[in-house]
């Protein structure tokens, strides 16, 4: 009897606690998962409006393939359903891992705005890529954008001090968005 109380009662109590905790976590997930998904969608729509400021609405996501990678893009329209540009989300590797970048490209092929959706760079250095002063450099750029460590030219941006890898990653993400724009406008591979 002592053996039973020493080993089986605590094991049964622990097992019961685990079952109850698991059921409560599953219930919580079922309640919160739809709300989290809705908030994520709302945040993404707000980000699209931010990077393509002239758009009043967006199409459903459309797929396009570039160099073997599939992307989803959105066509931005004005109040008369005229296309004002496109929004592309691209991923590049920075110093601290993958960076997810959203780029709005106007109908004339110039960048409207850039927003970093996910970043895990070094605090105080690479994280400065989220600052407007850095991202605003991409505004009205077109074709291939380059990095400059001194004074940027017409189609280059000034790299972040101490974060050249991060600067290159954001620039490559924007360049990929511009290449996707060319594919969409050329009608190749889009769906």
Walk me through the structure.
Strands 1, 2, 3, 4, 5 and 6 form a six-stranded antiparallel β-sheet that branches. A two-stranded parallel ribbon has the order 7-8. Strand 5 (98-106) and strand 6 form a beta hairpin. 27% of the residues are buried. The chain starts with a helix and ends in a 5-residue tail after the last helix. It is elongated, with a radius of gyration of 23 Å. The chain is of the alpha+beta class. The protein has helices at residues 2-51, 132-135, 164-186; strands at residues 57-58, 62-66, 69-77, 83-93, 98-106, 111-118, 146-148, 156-158.
SSE layout and pairing:
Elements: H1 2-51, E1 57-58, E2 62-66, E3 69-77, E4 83-93, E5 98-106, E6 111-118, H2 132-135, E7 146-148, E8 156-158, H3 164-186
Parallel strand pairs: 7-8
Antiparallel strand pairs: 1-3, 2-3, 3-4, 4-5, 5-6
């Amino acid at each position: 009897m002592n053996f039973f109380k020493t080993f089986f009662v605590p094991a049964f109590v622990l097992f019961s606690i685990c079952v109850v905790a698991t059921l409560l976590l599953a219930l919580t997930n079922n309640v919160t998962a739809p709300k989290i998904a809705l908030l994520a969608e709302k945040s993404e729509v707000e980000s699209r409006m931010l990077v393509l400021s002239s758009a009043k609405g967006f199409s459903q996501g459309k797929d396009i393939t570039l160099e073997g990678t599939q992307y989803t893009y959105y066509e931005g329209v004005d109040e008369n359903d005229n296309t004002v540009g496109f929004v592309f989300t691209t991923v590049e590797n920075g110093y601290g891992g993958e960076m997810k970048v959203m780029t709005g490209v106007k109908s004339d092929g110039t960048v409207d705005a850039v927003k970093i959706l996910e970043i895990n760079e070094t605090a105080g250095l690479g994280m400065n890529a989220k600052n407007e002063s850095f991202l605003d450099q991409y505004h009205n750029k077109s074709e291939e954008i380059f990095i400059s460590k001194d004074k940027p030219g017409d189609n280059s941006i000034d790299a972040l001090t101490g974060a050249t890898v991060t600067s290159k990653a954001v620039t490559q993400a924007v360049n990929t968005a511009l290449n996707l724009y060319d594919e969409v406008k050329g009608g190749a591979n889009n769906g």
